[in-house]
Amino acid sequence: DVTGAVELPEGVEMVMPGDNIKMVVELINPIAMDEGLRFAIREGGRTVGAGVVAKIIA
User: Start and end of every Translation elongation factor EFTu/EF1A C-terminal domain (predicted)?
Assistant: First the structure.
């Protein structure tokens, strides 16, 4: 597990089930990944979201 900070698009405060958004995630530790990698977002031991890496910003 890697902790990161999520930056939602302007004007978006909450994402509901079924919504699709583009967001920026800044990880606190470096990790190897490629575009197309699938990931899960977990909070408090529960999966609250899932996604695919669309672009890596170095």
Answer: 2-56
Residue 31 CA, chain-centre distance (Å), reads 14
DSSP 8-state class, residue 58: -
pTM: 0.82
SS3 labels along 2-57: CCEEEECCCCCCCCCCCCCCCCEEEECCCCCCCCCCEEEEEECCEEEEEEECCCCC
The bridge status of strand 38-43 relative to strand 46-52 is antiparallel
Handedness of CA 36, 39, 8, 4 (dihedral sign): negative
Could you say which residues of the chain have pLDDT below 50?
none
- CATH class for the domain made up of 4-52: mainly beta
